[in-house]
Amino acid sequence: RVFALGLLLLALTPCTAETAADLQRALSRIEPGTYHRADWLWHTNYALAELSLKQATLLRGGGFIGNLDAAEKQVVAAGMAALQRLERREQPPLRAGALNELAYITDNDLTAQPYHLYLPPGYDGKRQWPLIVFLHGYVPSTSVVDPWLPVPEHCEVAGKHGCLLLVPYGRRNTDFQGVGEVDVLATIRQVRQAFNIDPDRLYLSGVSMGG
Questions:
Q1: In what order do the strands lie in the sheet with 112-118?
Q2: pTM for the structure as a whole
Q3: What's the rounded Cα separation, in Å, for the pair 71 and 77?
Q4: β-pair partners for 100
Q5: What is the pLDDT of residue 153?
Q6: Residues with Cβ within 8 Å of residue 107, at least 6 apart in sequence
Q7: How confident is the model at residue 8 (pLDDT cuts 50, 70, 90)?
Q8: Runs of H (alpha helix) within 61-196
Q9: d(CA 210, CA 199)
Q10: Helix, strand or coil, per DSSP, at residue 109
Q11: Mind listing the pLDDT tens digit for each residue in 92-149?
């Protein structure tokens, strides 16, 4: 009830661009004990809002090349939209034929970690679909603001063969060992929880560090 009231107050506020502080306040209104880890819709929308706050904070930390104000407004708006979906129990807007940014809250340090998921054209969840896990390469500048993502041609191959394509962030440049490996396995569990994946057609691939 407190969370719903908070969203109502936000909705009644004059239409001005929200800031990271506004997003942080909205997140803080969520009552302890309402976090449903086993509920994918709740878990993912909440994690996306937390991820947006992390992205906005990193943008303000420096090193971003581009229109900082516009970039911050974009990620904050995405976080606010995730909180509104959470309240309405709506799925994140997943686009077929494109990489979709998703997120989850980790068990080990309770942080929001991103992952990207490509849905092939025609995915409907009525049958089991194969899943390709793609581990990215090493790039010093990789971050949750600027993740290492496969080129469109890689996604097109997955789409041609009717496969979902999962791109774990893996805590940046960890060689996908230790905490990076934990995140890879966790994102696989997240995808299998929400999508109809064939357990006998789960493939691991990668390039450079991910290879």
A1: 99-105, 112-118, 164-168, 129-135, 197-206
A2: 0.88
A3: 10
A4: 117
A5: 93
A6: 186
A7: very low
A8: 68-88, 152-160, 179-194
A9: 22
A10: coil
A11: 999 999 999 999 999 999 999 999 999 999 999 999 999 999 999 999 999 999 999 9
Beta strands, E only, 108-206:
112-118, 129-135, 164-168, 197-206
Residue 107 DSSP label: T
The model's pLDDT over 33-79, given as tens digits with 9 standing for 90+, comes to: 666 678 899 999 999 999 999 999 999 876 555 677 888 999 999 99
- DSSP category for residue 167: E
Phi, psi (5° rounding) for residue 49? -65, -45
Which DSSP string corresponds to 24-51? HHHHHTSPTT---TT-HHHHHHHHHHHH
Question: Can you tell me the distance from the alpha carbon of 125 to that of 47, in angstroms, rounded to the nearest whole number?
Answer: 23
Say if residue 133 is exposed, middle or buried (CB neighbours under 10 Å; 0-12, 13-18, 19+): buried
Side-chain half-sphere CA neighbours of 24 within 13 A: 8
